[in-house]
Amino acid sequence: MTAILILNGPNLNLLGTRQPEVYGHTTLADIEANCRIHAKALKLDLGFVQSNHEGTLIDEIHAAKGVYGGLILNAGAYTHTSIALMDAIASVELPCIELHLSNVHAREEFRHKSYIAKVALGIICGFGAQGYPLAMSAMHQHLQATG
């Protein structure tokens, strides 16, 4: 069975209450439950982690090598600032999909730049919580095609 890791960055633990007009009312626990259901349907093992700390996310990326076939990363605001996360993804040589709940390109200009995009297979943004199963399906297809 193939395994993927979904990493969630800063402030995503506040989903459901943080800016519901932007991020909706779905909680991260709801998203994780839906991802586990989708993983079972795809016959994928799933890791699911959230941290507000950049170093913890980097440690999780490093630890993923040899354990997971791919990464799905919702790095939150770190997407636009973290060369360290970009370097960590490049160093483990695992396929990665960048994920955002909101359409970052329709928001503030500083959100239009992504360091993660430089090392990602692709980006899924603007579909809210539904972006997670979309990213999982895309990663599953990629891993099947390359595996």
Question: What is the gist of this entry?
Answer:
The chain has 5 helices and 5 strands. With 147 residues, it is α/β, with parallel strands linked by helices.
Largest sheet: 5 strands, parallel
- Number of helices, where a helix is a run of at least 4 consecutive DSSP H or I residues: 5
Order of helices and strands: EHHEHEHEEH
Quote the CATH topology. Rossmann fold
Low-pLDDT windows of residues? none
Distance, first to last CA: 12 Å
The secondary-structure class comes to alpha/beta
Mean pLDDT, to the nearest integer, reads 93
DSSP E strands, number:
5
Can you tell me the CATH class? Alpha Beta
- Main-sheet strand order equals 2-1-3-4-5
**Do you know the CATH architecture?**
3-Layer(aba) Sandwich
The coarse overall form would be globular
Rg calc: 14 Å
Strand content: 15-25%
How many structural domains are formed by the residues? 1
